[in-house]
UniProtKB/TrEMBL annotation:
The protein's name in its UniProt record: Peptidase M28
GO BP of this protein: proteolysis
Peptidase M28 domain mapped to chain residues: 109-346
Bias type Polar residues, positions: 149-159
PANTHER family tied to this protein: METALLOPEPTIDASE M28 FAMILY MEMBER (PTHR12147), PEPTIDASE M28 DOMAIN-CONTAINING PROTEIN (PTHR12147:SF26)
InterPro entries: M28_fam, Peptidase_M28
Region (Disordered): 139-159
GO molecular function list: metalloexopeptidase activity
Length: 356
């Protein structure tokens, strides 16, 4: 997961979040007084996914192809067990000094589609990347890759997103929808592939834009770093300053829907709907998009294609120092809150896919 592109500078950060604060951050308070749904089963399943990906498999990227393939097979097997047909989409990585030791390899997006009942269905895309950041000199670096160094096991970034994707898929499998829901696990979100043609979500965004047509796509939701909701000690991210300027409180009791102008309407309407479906607090903030400037995660490729998109996230490095570190381990996540968020997101996806 990455918030800023390879041309990131702190000055740009401050400017952008100030603009975001002045125009587009909004708190959506949960409505209604219904009972919180029982989260025990969802919590157990989420925990099993995260522990398997982060602890059993560990670091997973194309510099460690065995782990990458084991992760892909795990996701495929879980989706197939729910009744989905899974296809692989090739993500070609050309030989490049930018990518270091990678030599003309291919990674794979994993795609499963929940078919809608409409004779002319539209498509909602929900995705999460399953790779983790390779070792580099610093947590915030975009390169060069240092495969000999230990990279992150990626429990929150982004086994949590993959776990949320799988449990959203489970909820979808148990119901019918009017429109199609395309579920995608992406390769190569992390540096040095971020915002390059070798980024899996950019490959998928281009393919659906060209083959399905933008007018048939409802939008895209990126599930990104969703597991942290307890107070964390932040010593090196300056998170209080950044989050405060963006209108995002420096506390950990909410999920955020973050977008650029391309996804502004979708993110805000989804935040309103989420608040009607879940008692878990949600915030929505919009960041102006500049070329190679600001994006959050896998929503970037869809923005480039003019497809409304946003990231559902716990705000990652604005909240937790374990981001992109070897300390991003499975036992650190807050599973009861995480389960509540995922239940709300599942209800949101089902609702969106059933709108006329």
């Amino acid at each position: 997961m990455h918030f800023f592109s390879m041309t990131f500078r702190l000055g740009l950060l401050i400017v952008v979040v100030c603009i975001a604060l002045s125009s587009c951050s909004k708190l959506f308070s949960p409505r209604g007084s219904g009972e919180i749904p029982d989260t025990d089963q969802t919590e157990t399943l989420l925990k099993a996914h995260v522990f398997h990906l982060a602890d059993t498999i560990g670091e997973r990227n194309v510099y460690h192809p065995g782990s990458m393939e084991r992760s892909a097979r795990y996701i495929e097997q879980k989706l197939e067990g729910m009744g989905y047909a899974v296809t692989r989409q090739a993500v070609h990585i050309p030989p490049s000094g930018e990518f270091g030791a990678v030599k003309d390899w291919t990674a794979y997006n994993l795609i499963a589609i929940k078919k809608g009942t409409s004779p002319q269905p539209k498509m909602l895309i929900v995705g999460a990347h399953y790779d983790t950041k390779v070792g580099m000199d610093n947590w915030h670096d975009h390169g060069p890759a240092r495969p000999s160094r230990t990279g992150t096991p990626g429990a929150n970034d982004n086994a949590s997103g993959v776990a949320a994707l799988l449990e959203t898929a489970r909820a979808l499998a148990a119901t019918s929808t009017l429109h199609d829901v395309c579920l995608v696990a992406y390769a190569n979100e992390e540096p040095p592939f971020y915002q390059t043609p070798a980024m899996g979500s950019a490959v998928h965004a281009k393919s659906v834009s060209h083959h399905s047509g933008r007018e048939k796509i409802i939008g895209m939701i990126a599930l990104e770093t969703l597991g942290c909701y307890s107070p964390r000690v932040n010593k090196k991210r300056q998170s209080a300053v950044v989050a405060g300027l963006a209108g995002l409180p420096d506390r950990c009791d909410y999920v955020a829907f973050l977008s650029t102008n391309t996804g502004r309407k979708l993110a805000r309407s989804c935040a309103e709907e989420f608040s009607a479906l879940s008692r878990f607090p949600v915030r929505s903030a919009v960041f102006p998009y500049y070329t190679r400037g600001v994006s959050w995660s896998d929503d970037w490729g869809y923005m480039k294609e003019g497809i409304p998109s946003f990231a559902a996230t716990d705000t990652a490095f604005l909240r937790c120092d374990d981001y992109h570190e070897t300390s991003d381990t499975a036992e650190k996540l807050d599973y009861p809150q995480f389960a509540e968020v995922v239940q709300g997101l599942s209800k949101l996806v089902i609702s969106l896919a059933n709108k006329p």
